[in-house]
Amino acid sequence: MAVVVVTDxxxxxxxxxxxxxxxxxxxxxxxxxxxxxxxxxxxxPNDVHARAHVTTAGxxxxxxxxxxxxxxxxxxxxxxxxxxxxxxxxxxxxxASAVAREFGSSVxxxxxRSAAACxxxxxxxxxxxxxxxxxxxxxxxxxxxxxxxxxxxxxxxRLDNLRRSGRIGTASSWLGTALSLKPLLAxxxxxxxxxxxxxxxxxxxHAAMVDAVADLVGDRAASIVVHHVDNHDxxxxxxxxxxxxxxxxxxxxVADMGPVLSVHVGxxxxxxxxxxxxx
Length: 279
What we know:
The protein is α/β, with parallel strands linked by helices and 279 residues long. The chain folds into 2 domains: 4-148, Rossmann fold (3-Layer(aba) Sandwich), CATH 3.40.50; 149-276, Hypothetical Protein Tm841, Chain: A,domain 3. The chain is 37% helix and 24% strand. It has 10 helices and 13 strands. It has helices at 15-20, 61-74, 92-100, 117-131, 136-146, 160-165, 172-175, 202-217, 232-245, 259-265; strands at residues 4-8, 23-26, 29-32, 35-38, 54-57, 80-84, 107-111, 150-155, 184-187, 193-197, 222-228, 251-256, 270-276. The strands form 3 sheets. A 6-stranded mixed β-sheet has the order 10-9-8-13-11-12, sandwiched between helices. A 4-stranded parallel β-sheet has the order 2-1-6-7, with helices on both faces. It has a 3-stranded antiparallel β-sheet with strand order 4-3-5, covered by helices on one side. Strand 1 (4-8), helix 1 (15-20) and strand 2 form a beta-alpha-beta unit. It comes from Mycolicibacterium sediminis. InterPro entries: DegV (IPR003797), DegV_C (IPR043168), DegV_domain_contain (IPR050270). One of its GO terms (molecular function) is lipid binding. Keywords: Lipid-binding. It holds the Pfam family DegV.
């Protein structure tokens, strides 16, 4: 058989990619008025990011154990590589690491140090290695090598979700109290959400994000996903700008950010997740 790759629903993999590359997905959780809803499994309200009594939770130990156990059996003992949402943003990685110890060295857990499509990019890199017949050590190495090639930026239109989520950490004072502020944020090398620029208007923040991505990619090949929270029009504009600036892109798609991340960044948010080729 072949090594099987497992990830979580933060990676926003399309069902087609999941099936094509045999990537298994474990749901994250959204708790709406006390009801536990599984991302990608249960019906979650489209306006969940605008609701007052909403929290999120990482993948459960039981779901992770079931996924790893099934994937290991399907691999016929060849092993499992699990790629998960940044440990700095979610409990999923630490839970996954604890669960994986039950399976010894047969399950390898990789901290993507990122979020959204960047998690998916790492999982797909590992799955392609598994599909070509690489052994467990090699598939794990491919996943770990893909982590630093991923980068993510986000412009939030509302600060209340971000403050309430606590994911901005010590940068909360940097955000200030200006209601009109549209900060450009990024994920750092440790997968933490950190401030990049304080900007007053959404259009200027989006332009600054395009500049940041274009400068980072340069003339290298890259794949990009533009994410949004109920803001497809602005996401299309950002995508078109990136396509014009970076004609060498291997792919660019526009996709929603998913309910779990949307709860933390709020309505209107636009994010760019990318993976670049080695120089």
